[in-house]
Amino acid sequence: MPDQQAGADQRIARRLRLRDLHMLRVVAELGSMAQAAERLAMSQPAISKAIAGMERSLGAPLLDRGPRGVEPTAYGRVLLARGTAMLDELRLGIEEIRFLADPATGRLRIGTTEPMTAIVSAVILRLSPRYPRMTFEVEMADTGLLFQRLRDRSLDLAVSRTAGAAAEPDLLVDPLFDDPLVVMAGRRNPLARRRRILLAELMAEPWVLPPPDSFLGGMIAAAFRLRGLDPPRAVTTRSVRLAVNLLGNGCFLSVLPSAMLRFRAQYPALAALPVELAETRRPIALITLGNRSPAPAARLFTECAHAVARLLPGGG
């Protein structure tokens, strides 16, 4: 009986084509047969026929069709999860072959938080002259979303603060340097001339902070509570650029990665206040999905990122 089942599974696997798995992924991503047909430059009946053939082979429905479009069934989600990994490994294999033929080529999909764009740009500025045909796709998002994008294989690597390797056991963490959060102000703010400040002394100041449900916002709220303080009333935003503008042009305070001050040319108007937040020290790291072959371009980026980190004040 096990041999018969194995034979049946092999026959089903032979009927499933990579093209059809890719088609299913696009339909699920867009939630629309019509939009998938437009993106794939195919007719909608051809897509419907191919997916119906997959459902017959598997003996299970892959999509639920409703007035709001289509979405994967439980069976479809399982096939998509396995199929996405297979398609991703095939893509990496093709890139590996292309890289062996011409090491100057490659495509790298990078995710980064907004404060860490300074590191990403420094690495790209180093790699681009040496590998002018290498292409970079950079996505900026909160750390939690970057982790999700790594897991669904939409990114090759991410540059972000981490909570430690044990916090995300399916991700590989390659630290570049350790970095605490610091209370920041504009360089012209009178508080920037103080030699020591307790966080409790700043509660009445105007603040701009990330929302508490964000990765950084949660760490900041914990730092206030550790000192017996409720997080202050604040302008909340996920935009570091908005926070930097408010700090540089007014009396606002914020809590941001101290790594930003290592790139003085990008943030010349900012200064760290002498407030102790030692418990917020975490690695700034290159993060990749475990059990996944790295793209050749990712290996080059990793080597270059470590070289950049070693050149930073107190880095590497």
Task: Report on the architecture of this protein.
The chain is α/β, with parallel strands linked by helices. The protein is elongated. The chain has three domains: 2-82, Arc Repressor Mutant, subunit A; 102-177 and 283-311, Periplasmic binding protein-like II (D-Maltodextrin-Binding Protein, domain 2); 181-280, D-Maltodextrin-Binding Protein, domain 2. The chain has ten helices and twelve strands.
What's the level 1 CATH class of the largest domain? Answer: Alpha Beta
Q: What is the typical, i.e. mean, pLDDT?
A: 85
Could you list the spans in which at least 5 consecutive residues all have pLDDT below 50?
4-9
**CATH homologous superfamily grouping of the largest domain:** Periplasmic binding protein-like II
* Shape category: elongated
Q: What is the fold-level CATH name, i.e. the topology of the largest domain? A: D-Maltodextrin-Binding Protein, domain 2
In whole angstroms, the N-to-C terminal distance is 58 Å
Number of domains: 3
- Report the CATH architecture of the largest domain: 3-Layer(aba) Sandwich
Strand order of the largest sheet: 4-3-5-12-6
Estimate the strand proportion.
15-25%
SSE order: HHHHEEHEHEHEEEEHEHEEEH
Radius of gyration: 24 Å
Structural class: alpha/beta
| Count of distinct strands | 12
Largest sheet: 5 strands, mixed
Share in helix: 40-55%
Helix count from the secondary structure assignment: 10
